[in-house]
Design a protein that fits this description.
- This protein has helices at 4-13, 72-76, 151-159, 174-177, 193-203, 306-321; strands at 19-26, 33-36, 46-51, 58-65, 83-92, 95-106, 110-114, 117-126, 143-145, 171-172, 185-187, 206-210, 216-220, 229-234, 240-246, 255-264, 268-275, 293-296, 326-331, 342-347, 352-366, 372-378.
- The protein is mostly beta strands and 383 residues long.
- The strands form four sheets. Strands 1, 2, 3, 4, 5, 6, 7, 8, 14, 15, 19, 20, 21 and 22 form a 14-stranded mixed β-sheet that branches. It has a three-stranded mixed β-sheet with strand order 10-13-12. A three-stranded mixed β-sheet has the order 17-16-18, covered by helices on one side.
- The longest helix is centred in the C-terminal third of the chain and has 16 residues, at 306-321.
- It starts with a helix and ends in a 5-residue tail after the last strand.
Length: 383
């Protein structure tokens, strides 16, 4: 068990730090560690990019030094679905403190030989590529999930199909695991398991993705106001390098409309209309802003009740209303941070006073570079 208090004391007091990284080779079905290539990674040659979205969230790239030709044999026999794990951290008073950043499936490694320049370029995406057709997941026949199927059982069984072969136990929230599909979900040959999962998640108003440990995850969305900040940035903070705030007016919506394909009482469609009524938001309809409606058109076939329509509207409004202000923040690397967590920002030049933002993206360097980038979006209090 890591002493996180030691870590937080370290990042809040030490300007000169010792970042560390670890890249492990994994078995392609159960993610067991079978080796490590850290010592051959060219320092500063790589990065990790994380985005808060359903589906694929993580990507990584780096360069291996292959001057002794020690890795040629390994990559010669690399097979479909092979994967690696990246962890980042700090060495604190001689103790290594690690934070996993993802499990990645190899994309297209390239070996280079040019005199003394013998390297291997590595890139990979998270295990969603096993589902979306990048590496696996393509349906070879019509795929049907009958109405009344347990979501948890269906996902467990689907991950073990021979077009996926992910045998790691998924993390499915209990409230979702026991939910039943309300209609027949049918996808044709040539579509993907990812398409099926995304349809189920949309109708349950859930997030669906692979987490930092490479575990398939499905869970209900969080209410921003209930989340405590994982860090509080201030203008003079030791970890705050700088930030740029943007007001993306063209991308803001303050109302959501959901119209189901199904009828209510056999004569009228099920409709949900939800406005942003947050009085603290200048773009809220209650403050006289023009009502700008986002019409939800994807994955609405499974909405059979008014409650389902209302929940979907809340889920969609959270996503489209938070774009009213965004920040690109440069920070010293704080490896405990995860996408979809909250930070606060206090900077008088940005007009922010302990303003709450959701982490929508993270970019970490692999190596000694002492900076990282966070993409932040304003949180929404009314959900």
């Amino acid at each position: 068990m890591q002493d996180l208090q030691k870590y937080f004391n370290y990042i809040s007091t030490k300007r000169i730090r010792e970042p560390i990284y670890k890249i492990e080779l994994l078995h392609k079905e159960d993610d067991a560690v079978i080796g490590e290539i850290t010592s051959s990674v060219e320092d500063g040659s790589g990065s990790i990019s994380i985005s808060n979205q359903d589906g694929s969230r993580r990507s990584a790239s780096f360069t291996l030094n292959n001057y002794r030709n020690q890795w040629q044999e390994y990559f010669k026999y690399l097979s479909i679905g092979q994967r690696f794990k990246v962890s980042l951290g700090y060495k604190i008073n001689g103790e290594e403190m690690w934070f996993p950043q993802g499990v990645f499936v190899y994309s297209d490694p390239s070996l280079r030989s040019e005199g003394s320049n013998t390297t291997i370029s590595i890139s990979g995406n998270d295990k969603w590529s096993l589902l979306d057709g990048t590496v696996g997941g393509i349906l070879d026949a019509t795929f049907q999930v009958p109405a009344g199927t347990s979501v948890g059982k269906f996902i467990n069984d689907s991950l073990k199909l021979d077009i996926v072969k992910d045998y790691v136990t998924p993390n499915i929230d209990a409230s979702v695991f026991n939910a039943m599909t309300t209609y027949d979900i049918i996808h044709s040959a040539g579509e993907t398991i990812a398409d099926v999962f995304l349809e189920v998640a949309a109708n349950l108003s859930c997030y669906v993705y692979y987490d930092e440990n490479g575990i398939f995850t499905m869970r209900p969305f969080d209410y921003d106001e209930t989340l405590s900040p994982v860090y509080e940035y201030t203008y003079n903070d030791i970890n705050y390098i700088g930030a740029t705030k943007t007001l993306p007016i063209s991308k803001i919506y303050n109302s959501v409309l959901v119209v189901s394909d199904n009828l209510q009482n056999s004569n009228a469609p099920i409709v949900a209309m939800l406005d942003n009524n947050d009085v603290t938001d200048i773009n809220s309809v209650v403050n006289g802003a023009i009502r700008k409606v986002y019409n939800v058109t994807d994955n609405i076939a499974g909405i059979y009740t008014q409650k389902q329509a209302d929940e979907r509207a809340r889920y969609e409004l959270k996503k489209v209303a938070c774009m009213q202000s965004t920040i690109s923040l440069t920070t010293t690397p704080l490896y405990h941070m995860r996408e979809n967590e909250i930070v606060t920002v206090t900077d008088p030049y940005l007009g922010c006073n302990a303003e709450r933002f959701l982490i929508s993206g993270i970019n970490f360097n692999i190596g000694v570079d002492n900076s990282a980038t966070l993409d932040l979006v304003k949180t929404t209090r009314y959900l």
